[in-house]
């Protein structure tokens, strides 16, 4: 998992934050009519849960990418990890991990971070070879990611490159949730005088606040699992009422 730099974040993503009142059901119906790529059209045809679905009943899938760099315009996906889940259960048997032959140069700096080497990708499939299966894993589910702009931007960049289309979907961003939960303890002038820092909302630091175990970072499957567990801990701590609607945490 990388974190996008400020320059990359200046570009507005096509999968814009939707807000609580956004009609995802209607959006999927509209997109299903417009989509040309068969697997993408089928993805939209499966629909999405309604906004008032209780969080505890929502089908979810945690998603994480490793990439060749930070900029989706000049870098590309090198591995994909996903884990099917609910806030009560993680379905490890349905987890999936792909090493992808990147469309751009595999840089030394990124190899040092995620450990995926040129020999690892030499015989790996290209993104378009796994696209249909990826969409099957996503269909009908709400995506969970930590710092969702990475997944949204890189996924749409790859889709645009291979099929000339993009995708939209509701997403739960565990980093954004943690920022929301941490508002009451964010840095103030008094905290500054006391030398106290703003709590970090990186994945590993968020997990430590919920006393979740440390996992080695920058493996797409492990990071997807780490994100899934973090969401479960966040919901258990901040949304103990199982009847809270999924719209309370998706965007």
TrEMBL record:
<feature type="domain" description="Exonuclease">
    <location>
        <begin position="59"/>
        <end position="240"/>
    </location>
</feature>
<dbReference type="Pfam" id="PF00929">
    <property type="entry name" value="RNase_T"/>
</dbReference>
<dbReference type="GO" id="GO:0004527">
    <property type="term" value="F:exonuclease activity"/>
</dbReference>
<keyword id="KW-0269">Exonuclease</keyword>
<keyword id="KW-0540">Nuclease</keyword>
<keyword id="KW-0378">Hydrolase</keyword>
<protein>
    <recommendedName>
        <fullName>DNA-directed DNA polymerase</fullName>
        <ecNumber>2.7.7.7</ecNumber>
    </recommendedName>
</protein>
<dbReference type="InterPro" id="IPR012337">
    <property type="entry name" value="RNaseH-like_sf"/>
</dbReference>
<dbReference type="InterPro" id="IPR006054">
    <property type="entry name" value="DnaQ"/>
</dbReference>
<dbReference type="InterPro" id="IPR036397">
    <property type="entry name" value="RNaseH_sf"/>
</dbReference>
<dbReference type="InterPro" id="IPR013520">
    <property type="entry name" value="Ribonucl_H"/>
</dbReference>
């Amino acid at each position: 998992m990388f974190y996008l730099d400020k320059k990359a974040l200046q570009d507005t993503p096509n999968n814009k934050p939707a807000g609580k009142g956004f009609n995802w059901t209607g959006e999927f119906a509209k997109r299903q009519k417009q989509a040309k790529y068969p697997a993408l059209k089928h993805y939209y045809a499966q629909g999405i849960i309604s906004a008032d679905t209780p969080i505890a009943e929502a089908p979810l899938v945690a998603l994480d990418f490793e990439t060749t760099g930070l900029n989706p315009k000049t870098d590309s996906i090198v591995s994909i990890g996903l884990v099917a889940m609910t806030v009560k259960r993680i379905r490890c048997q349905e987890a999936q991990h792909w090493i992808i032959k990147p469309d751009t140069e595999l840089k030394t700096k990124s190899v040092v971070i995620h450990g995926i080497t040129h020999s690892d990708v030499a015989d790996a499939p290209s993104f378009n070879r796994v696209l249909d299966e990826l969409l099957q894993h996503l269909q009908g589910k709400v995506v969970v990611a930590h710092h969702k702009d990475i997944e949204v931007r890189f996924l749409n960049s790859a889709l645009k490159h291979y099929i000339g289309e993009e995708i939209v979907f509701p997403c739960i961003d565990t980093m954004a949730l943690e920022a929301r939960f941490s508002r009451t303890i964010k840095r103030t002038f008094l905290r500054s005088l006391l030398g106290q820092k703003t709590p970090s909302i990186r994945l590993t630091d968020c997990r430590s606040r919920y006393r979740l175990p440390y996992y080695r970072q920058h493996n797409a499957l492990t990071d997807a699992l780490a994100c899934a567990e973090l969401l479960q801990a966040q919901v258990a701590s901040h949304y103990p009422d199982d009847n809270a609607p999924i719209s309370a945490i998706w965007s």
